[in-house]
Amino acid sequence: MIALEFSTFLGRFHPLFVHLPIGFLLLAILLEWYQAITKKKRKSRLIAFAWLLGAVSAFAAALCGWFLGESGSYQDDSLFVHRWLGIALVVVAFIGWRIKYKSDNFSNVVHNGINIVLLLMLTIEGHKGGNLTHGENYLVEYAPAPIQNMLGVVQREEKLPQLSSPDSVTVYADMIHPILETKCISCHSDEVQRGGLNLATPELLQEGGENGPVVEASQPTESELFRRVTLPQKNTKYMPPKGEPMTYDEIKVMEWWIAQGAPFDKKLSDLEIPNTIKPTILRLYGLDTEPKPWYETVQLAPLDSTQIENLRSVGFSVRTLGGKNPLLDVKYSNTDLTKEQLMELDKVKEHITWLSLASSNVEDEWLSIVGNFENLTRLQLEKTDITDKGVGMLSNLSHIETLNLYGTKVTDSCLADLEKMEGLKRVYLWRTGVSPEDAKKLQEEKAELQVIGGKT
């Protein structure tokens, strides 16, 4: 550990030395060419001295750069070329110094040849170093768009995706992988695997790197992936070593995902979302995870006006919920309702979310039609002659939230069917044949259900 820290300490001097050889060697070459233009017969000794300073400082820069490369902060392929080109430049610089020191022993072709070779090497080596430090596009990153297009520069989108519905969001694919893609993939991909780690696919992520798994399910603090992104940025093991670090929100989402067991195939709606993480998800992905009534989550094309007018023409009161919501609130309260009229509702059943047949002459058998209204969330049957048989017709309404049976003829026998309604949150049973004791028992068995009233 001490040796590693000392080598890292020496490596940090690379930026200090790396510009010295550029200055000394350029000065030497320019001075030599100036003397050639002014037709000086004898080369100045300053030329050879500048070459010597350039060679020595190039050696110091290469040595420190070698140690800096051992820190693990750079991609292996690019680092390999930069390292060995730097060493070759040191050799060429010392050869150049020898030629300049014994200038009379070499022709102008040799002198100019070594100058041109060194200038080319300096240019390429400087560009390679810039790529390592700032990224491959650092020269053209802020160039005008036409120039970028001409050079074929591909701009990678750094923004995280904006999501719409928790039910359609796969947590890893839609939330976690985009973070890894923008902050980690450049060093852990199919092309580059720093530390033997490839994050390109869920399977490769689970394999881990040279030191084993990087994610411990349900244990964020024991997961190497989480530990590395939360280290102090000055730490040599901090990730990512360059570029934009993970934001606080991105780290919190990563921590939450690991705490949930680091699932790769689960939907957002399948996981527990603590109140502390909901604002974070909203900021990052524009996704509101607060529970919403079913009718706010349904996405349908609105009915055309002729369909709505048809319902009104057969006696129904119809209105939309307002805004961009295409679902309907339908009412019928007269005592001349027929099964044929309900069949008209069946034609648009996907769009009906609130239905009131209160005080009507609706019959048990007719409710088999209503039982197919898949987006129905509120049904009012108060003050009708509906019995337990009619409630049985409704047991498949999985999204029904409110059911009003006030003043109907239902009894304790309907409670089993009420229990089957998964989304039911509130049921009114005043002035029915349901006993208070059994009503209380139903509420105890379904903690999320509010049972209001019973036999009085």
From TrEMBL:
Superkingdom of the organism of origin: Bacteria
Record field: transmembrane: 16-34, 46-68, 80-97
Keywords: Heme, Iron, Membrane, Metal-binding, Transmembrane, Transmembrane helix
PROSITE patterns in UniProt: CYTC
Native species: Kriegella aquimaris
Keyword Acetylation appears in the UniProt entry: no
A GO term for molecular function: metal ion binding
Heme recorded as keyword: yes
Protein name in the entry: Uncharacterized membrane protein
